[in-house]
Amino acid sequence: MVGRPLDSARLGETLLPKRLALPIFCSDPLSSVAYATEEILLVVGLGGVALLSLTWYAAAAIVLVLVVVVASYRQTCYAYPGGGGAYIVSARNLGRNAALTAASALLVDYVLTVAVSVVSGVAAITSAIPSLGGHDVALSVGFVALLALMNLRGVRESGRVFAVPTYGFVFFVYLMFGCAAVRMATGATLRAESADLPLHAASGYTGLALVLLGMRAFASGCTALTGVEAISNGVPAFRRPKSRNAATTLLVMGIFSVTMFSGITVLAMVYDVHVAAQPTDLGLPPDTAMPTALAQIARTSFGGADTLFYLLQAFTAGVLILAANTAFNGFPMLASILAEDRYLPRQLRNRGDRLVFSNGIILLALAAIGLIILFDAQLTRLIQLYIIGVFVSFTLSQTGMVRHWRSELATPGLPRRERHRHRRSQAINACGAVLTGVVLVIVLLTKFVHGAWIVVIAMPLLFTGMRSVHRHYRRVERELAAAPGARPWEPAGSHVMVLVNALDAPALKALGYARAMRPTTLDALTVAVDPDEVRALHAQWDAHGIDVPLQVLSSPYRDYTRPVLDHVQDVCRRHPGGAVTVVLPEHLVSRWWEQPLHNQSALRLRARLLFGPGVNVVNVPYRLSDGEPGDR
Amino acid sequence: MVGRPLDSARLGETLLPKRLALPIFCSDPLSSVAYATEEILLVVGLGGVALLSLTWYAAAAIVLVLVVVVASYRQTCYAYPGGGGAYIVSARNLGRNAALTAASALLVDYVLTVAVSVVSGVAAITSAIPSLGGHDVALSVGFVALLALMNLRGVRESGRVFAVPTYGFVFFVYLMFGCAAVRMATGATLRAESADLPLHAASGYTGLALVLLGMRAFASGCTALTGVEAISNGVPAFRRPKSRNAATTLLVMGIFSVTMFSGITVLAMVYDVHVAAQPTDLGLPPDTAMPTALAQIARTSFGGADTLFYLLQAFTAGVLILAANTAFNGFPMLASILAEDRYLPRQLRNRGDRLVFSNGIILLALAAIGLIILFDAQLTRLIQLYIIGVFVSFTLSQTGMVRHWRSELATPGLPRRERHRHRRSQAINACGAVLTGVVLVIVLLTKFVHGAWIVVIAMPLLFTGMRSVHRHYRRVERELAAAPGARPWEPAGSHVMVLVNALDAPALKALGYARAMRPTTLDALTVAVDPDEVRALHAQWDAHGIDVPLQVLSSPYRDYTRPVLDHVQDVCRRHPGGAVTVVLPEHLVSRWWEQPLHNQSALRLRARLLFGPGVNVVNVPYRLSDGEPGDR
Fold first, then answer.
1. Are A233 and A328 in contact (CB under 8 A)?
2. Residue B479: which of A503, A616, A624 has the nearest Cβ?
3. Rounded to whole angstroms, how far apart are CA atoms B190 and B172?
4. Is B15 an interface residue toward A (CB < 8 Å)?
5. CA-based nearest residue in chain A for residue B473
6. I need a labelling partner for B357 at 20 to 30 A (CA). Which of A105, A230, A474, B318 fits?
7. Phi/psi of residue A92, each to 5°?
8. Tell me: the pLDDT tens digits for B86-122?
9. Nearest to B76 by CA among B394, B331, B387, B551
10. Distances, alpha carbon A127 to alpha carbons A290, A315, A445, in Å
């Protein structure tokens, strides 16, 4: 299903050229222009038609932040060619707690990226095909599962899959701008289908309330900034020269992002697009299917060219759903680094058969599916949890970079030109740190009561969880370490017990195996639930002339486990320093679906023996259909 | 949660006096009078007001069948004091296939009894408290879970719990009859609240269609007969003289059932109760909450005495929900008998800590909950699947009894009085067999397209499933049996391999343990995923002066399992007839929730070693926090 296993030596072959790296790492920030404008309009629309002009200010601020953040992260690409995600940069420059804070923030936001992008991609699909409406949860979950499968196959194949919708989306957005420009130049008056709908709005947004509304609109539009981190995190996946290629890709992404976001916002304002959370706020009957802002703009711009409209919607859906892929690259890689540093379970550390971090991919998919189901695939509710994490990690990462350059500048004998370049980088990062810090405060203030509190609780939980995991691994490592010069154990005597229910072929095999261990003492144990069975067992014992003594344990409560545990515990007490072993004969059926037909009590007993008295347990398998005693 | 474990010796104490046996075994047939009349009215109502008089014929036929079936089963109680369920009677007299057919039928119907009774009990509750409507699924599932818990506690406690609602229900139904009689005698004209509602009905029920409608009404009302089987099945649970007490209880139940069913039906006809599947069929707006027929009758009979009405509704709900308990007695007991005869997995055979068949109880609860969720707790849909199974087992059981008496009569030297009594019993059972057979055909014909086909598919599936299980157990038993005079295995040499990742304390303990087994050959195995780790391991090996040779297995695909399996398979091939053992050092953390933090690869490897090459596997546990090497 996920392809043949790949040899470790082929890891080098999967390095990415720029033209494939762009769609893989940048589908998230590029695609978010599909809904960023709409999110601004939704908030300012709360103040009525009169306040729509606030959009201009919010959009301008977002463009400014976007430019600064892209410039900042370009510095990171050069400084950390081995991959400079917020976690690594914070760890190297700000210490462990800052790094774990950044990591918690990023893990939460990767999950939200998947959920938000996929849900909004599904919204693009239902805008074009209204009959699919109502199946949002099923469609979203299906797409997340599909993405997980593709990523389990490996990174190179996915790069090719992602190139088409990303470049297609960029192309059709620019084509839409071109169409709009030509039609407006030829004197057409273009209006959105919702232009004449009233906006039922609460009045009285003046003074502080007006400022807060503007800030909230800005905060909602900041979704356009998510995923910029991905490139700096993924520098090692680029072809050589890695840093330069990564920085260039980041620049190209920035240019695309800024122009597309600005263009869409301008067209939304020119066409008078009106949007609202509920159809009733626009004076429409409830249950009316409302097309997205981008869908309205596209329909108006392309005029009668329905084919172009449907193509743009298709590419929008494609790029949005694939934007979730940024997280499918970032999350498992970050989880693997955290597991390597022993902050997350070690299962997340290893690459699977196909050279990808399989467990991280599965974990991310499950978490995103959980969120989608929990929030009923409603974009407006999910978006409230989004971006907090991104700006926490932005701020920490940029602050870390300022420190990085300071220590670089402290290197003695640095050439003047280097020194000059480092200072410039430091200034850019300082600017980024301050700006993203301010945005973080704004986002927190305006989104907290609307759902962001969930993230504000989840992040510290993750943080303390990772610290506990780390403490646990440190303690285990200390306790497992062999003392210097320690020798293998030399047990004082070996005491073996064979557990039998009947003297059948598996029991005969197990008794023989136990005798071959040449133990100091050897007993057979049986539990007396049914006195008839015990009598039959004694008779068989005599008939076969078995010289191993048979101990009968009584069980008034028809329980097999307790009497055995008590007896074994007793043997342990009588032989301190000795090796106590319980031998369990086990008959194996040849087909797995037959196994539940056989009593699982042996499996339960084994776990209880290991975890309880902590004795050694031997499983002597006897295979049916193709096995006989004396097999191996 | 389910009480302290009980000693096997206390099994005798749980025998039931008649006054407790009645509510335990008879709540099902008694409670079904709460909905049997309504089911008849629902069907005849399809033909409009004119056809309501068909109810008289259907009800009379049902009373006749009920009398005959009760009389028949009283013979069974005497003939089989050890418990004469349809399965046992069919097995002894009609052979294995008939017995398994009866068993499949009963298993299916026990599940349906739980689902139908609980759902209709919830309907009684929502009839009295309409604000609970809409939560039917949750309420039903909750009650099934509650019943399962009570039954897991044991049969004696449950007997007391069930006495109150069963006797309360019987008392209040008779009180209702009394009130109605007194008020009618004093000249009051009593009419149901729905008496004047029109019945929107398809016209044209004449000739064959009319006959079919009557038969369908009869078939629907036959739900009153379910559960009669329970007493004959449960004879061993009665106090001595078991057979006579069981037969008497059955007679009392029959008298209660016939009088209550007749009374309710008469009142429904006198009051002109109109019911329909949809509110719109009665000219009511959709979403109108419709009270049950019994609720309407009770409200009319009690007049203004609201307290009495609510008490009756409460006891109705109680007895209906507890009726499901009949199945919680019957299903696990039947499953245990089938498991004893090796037609079902052996886990169903054993009594648990509290002397009840815990696994059977849990299985029944899960199946019923599944049905309730699948059918959205809609009584009208569930009832279509019901009764087929009951009449299959009735017919088989009565036919078996006819054969039973024939063989009894063939006993030479039987006294004349005995012979006379046997002949009478045989005649009664023959009458029962013919009548229930005819009813089975009617039920199949009239219910098949309305949902009964599901049961018609499920029963043969269960039948073939049980036969496959039986074949499997027979084969395994043959293969497990030791040859006469067989001796324990004497392996030709012992070849032990210790799997290590690092030379830590668990590895030192395992190496020492393996050496104490005094094997012919002893090796340490490690898998080379990371060359650095292998180098470090070699260095440790030298530092500690370990004289066990270290074998390094290469793994290009970063997989630990495959190389080990291949190597072990190879060792097995080189030493035929020898005992090959793999020793797995295992470190155990002291808290269970810490376990997932450690690689589960050892567990996976163990299963693969046992099921794959079939070698012996030793787990040498090393406990952290409180363990050291040389522990035991």
1. no
2. A624
3. 19
4. no
5. A597
6. B318
7. -75, -30
8. 888 999 999 999 999 999 998 998 999 999 999 989 9
9. B394
10. 7, 13, 32
Q: What are residue A554's DSSP bridge partners?
A: A528
Contact B489 A511 (CB under 8 A): yes
pLDDT given for residue B282 in this prediction? 82
Residue A511 contacts B, CB cutoff 8 Å:
yes
Write down the pLDDT at residue A530. Answer: 78
pLDDT of residue A630: 39
Window 175-204 of A, Cβ < 8 Å to B: none
Specify the pLDDT at position A381.
81
User: B482 to chain A: which residues are within 8 Å by CB?
Assistant: 503-505, 507-508, 540, 544
Q: How many Cα atoms are found within 13 Å in the side-chain-facing hemisphere of B141?
A: 15
Least Cα distance to B461 among B116, B100, B95, B96 occurs for B100
Number of other CB atoms surrounding residue B464 within 10 Å: 12
In chain B, the residue whose alpha carbon lies closest to the alpha carbon of A496 is B517
B507 and A346 within 8 Å at the Cβ level: the answer is: no
Residues A210-259 have pLDDT tens digits of 888 899 999 989 988 887 888 887 788 888 888 899 999 999 999 999 99
- Looking only at the bridges linking them, the beta strands covering B550-554 and B521-528 are parallel
Cβ B597–A469 below 8 Å, yes or no? yes
Of all residues in chain B, the one with the smallest CA distance to A495 is B632
Q: Are B109 and B420 in contact (CB under 8 A)?
A: no
Q: What percent of chain B has pLDDT over 90?
A: 40
Is B489 within 8 Å of A482 when comparing Cβ atoms?
A: no
Contact A579 B516 (CB under 8 A): yes
Three-state SS string across B332-381, please? HHHHHHHHHCCCCCHHHCCCCCCCCCHHHHHHHHHHHHHHHHHCCCCHHH
Of the listed ranges A48-62, A148-162, B74-88, the least confidently predicted one is A148-162
Residues of chain B positioned with their CB less than 8 A from the CB of A508: 482, 486-489
B480 and A513 in contact by Cβ < 8 A? no
pLDDT the model gives residue B628: 42
The per-residue pLDDT of chain B, averaged, comes to 86
Q: Which amino acid is at A189?
A: T
Residue-wise pLDDT for B46-66, tens only, equals 888 878 889 999 999 999 999
Separation of alpha carbons A319 and A121, rounded Å: 8
Confidence of residue B420 (pLDDT cuts 50, 70, 90): very high
A487 touches chain B (CB under 8 A): yes
What are the Cα distances from residue B506, in Å, to A480, A610, B596, B619, B632? 7, 14, 18, 11, 13
List of residues 6+ apart from A62 with CB closer than 8 A? A36, A218, A221, A222, A224, A225, A261
List the single best residue of B489, B530, B572 to mutate versus A (max A Cβ within 10 A): B489
Cβ-based contacts of B548 with chain A (< 8 Å): 488
Largest Cα span, chain B: 109
B206, pLDDT greater than 60? yes
DSSP structural state of residue A239? P
Does ipTM come in above 0.90?
A: no
| Contact between residue B21 and residue B245 where contact means Cβ atoms under 8 Å apart | yes
Among the partner-chain residues B353, B586, B589, the one whose CB lies closest to the CB of A559 is B353
Nearest to A619 among B5, B597, B617 (CB): B617
Rounded Cα distance, B409 and A56, in Å: 103
Between strands A616-623 and B616-623, the pairing is antiparallel
Inter-chain residue contact A629 with B596, CB threshold 8 Å: no
Peptide bond into A519 cis (omega under 30): no
Q: Which residues of B touch A580 (CB under 8 A)?
A: 632
Q: Token digits for B198?
A: 């029109």
For A437-466, b where at least 16 C-beta lie within 10 A, e where not — what string?
Answer: bebbebbbebbeeebbeebeebbeebbeeb
